[in-house]
Input
Amino acid sequence: MNTAPKVFNPWLVAFAVVVPTFMEVLDTTIANVALRHIAGGLSAAQTDSEWVITSYLAANAIVLPITGWIASRLGRRRYFLLSISLFTLASLLCGLSTSLDMLILCRVLQGVAGGGLQPCSQGILLDTFPPEKQGAAQTLFGIAALIAPVVGPTLGGWITDQYSWRWIFYINLPVGALAWFLCASLVWDPEYLKQERAAQVKQPLRFDFPGLSLLILVIVAWELLLSKGQEWDWLGDPFGRIQSLVVLFVLGLAALVWWEGRQTRPIVSFQPLHDRNFALSSIIIFCSFAILYGSSTLLPGMLETLFGYDALHAGLVLSPSGVFTVIAVILVGRMLGLGMDARWLIGAGLLILALGSYWMACMNLEISPGQVIWPRVVLVIGLGLVFAPINVAAYLYIPQKMRGAAVGLFALLRNEGGSFGTSLGHTLTERFQQFHALRLNESLDPFNPAVTSFLTQSKAQMLQQTGDPVAAAQMSLQALYNLRTVHAQALSYLDCFLIFAVAGGVLAFFVFGMRRSVAEKGAHISAE
Output
């Protein structure tokens, strides 16, 4: 049996476990901007290349809630090192893929391996630091979890443009090797986990196959809904695919909750949700990451379609927010260490997040890059204020024996919130664009003096260029159509940001339902 060294600097342990977490979270967004290049390089349709993202998210989501069970059987340290090894190997295979089918299969393996990294990393932090330092520990974890999705698209765009899409996977090799070496040297299982594993090893292995099957059904249906919902017209799908997925998801989730509630050793435990702090924190983290990922998807899209930015420069406009996120998270960790109630930091962060979203909703087509940077900075600062406190509040009253299940479930909801926000953003922008285009059409008639003036001036300019009156008239109408389309697109983006602002403001009221959440020395960590 492995024995841990007597003295460890907890910050070395924290750095070691955060490195693979950053690597795994980065891979949820780094490939987004490279899909077109992947499809071209592997001679596949661009719509099919979306499975590179969907397959990873689905496999990752299936593993996240069962990491507690796996870690209790294998040992958390052994499982963590195994996950790092498989993730690094899968990254190599992704880069070497010769067909889209092979890449998707390797991404599934990568998602399965990556599913164990976040929960194990956070569980190790919870066990390494005493209660009064949990805020500082979650600060480091928050930097990795928040910065990775922010820099992912920018880094992915730069690597793809400068080298090849294959290098977005190859960069994981040195990072994975470093992470494995550090964790193998510094990470050890605490005594209670060793005792728990020893007790489970003596008992016969009774794997919850029905629970795992239901979990796979629910996650696959959910990810397909989010990925293909807009493409298949949601509930208007004439082939009934979306309707079938909705039925499978609802019935599968109900069956999963019912079945796991009757098991003595469930593969997915929903018991942490009985704690009021954990349940409310789960709702907040799901919605907060939906806003983060939704805005992170929409803002680059807006800059590229309406302002002519390329992927790299759109990412560079968003990158400064990462610096302010680090500052905000560090300051929050300091305040938590001084005994500040996490609830008030969460509430303040949600209001600031709402303010940043509202600021983005006030943008127009005449903005400069600087007028995009600062609203984004405010939004991400708000999320930076939320992240570490929400992790303190969520786990403060969770018994030690339930931490594994709680961490896995919380990580699942955090990741799925990001998937939901991305899908919601795409859907709302397309629907709102249709709505605004129809509304703008109501004013574009021959009796509107502004329309008549625009067409007259435009036709005169086109006539000077072409010398053809018929072509000039057609080009002036096309110019009016393009102008209407641009304004409809702009209004659709701004409406989405406004919805995010309202959602952030509503979430702030949830903190009033939470119990006092101060990470202080000698705090009683148990369910009430």
Q: What stands out?
A: Residues 1-7, 522-528 have pLDDT under 50 and may be disordered. The longest helix spans residues 403-441.
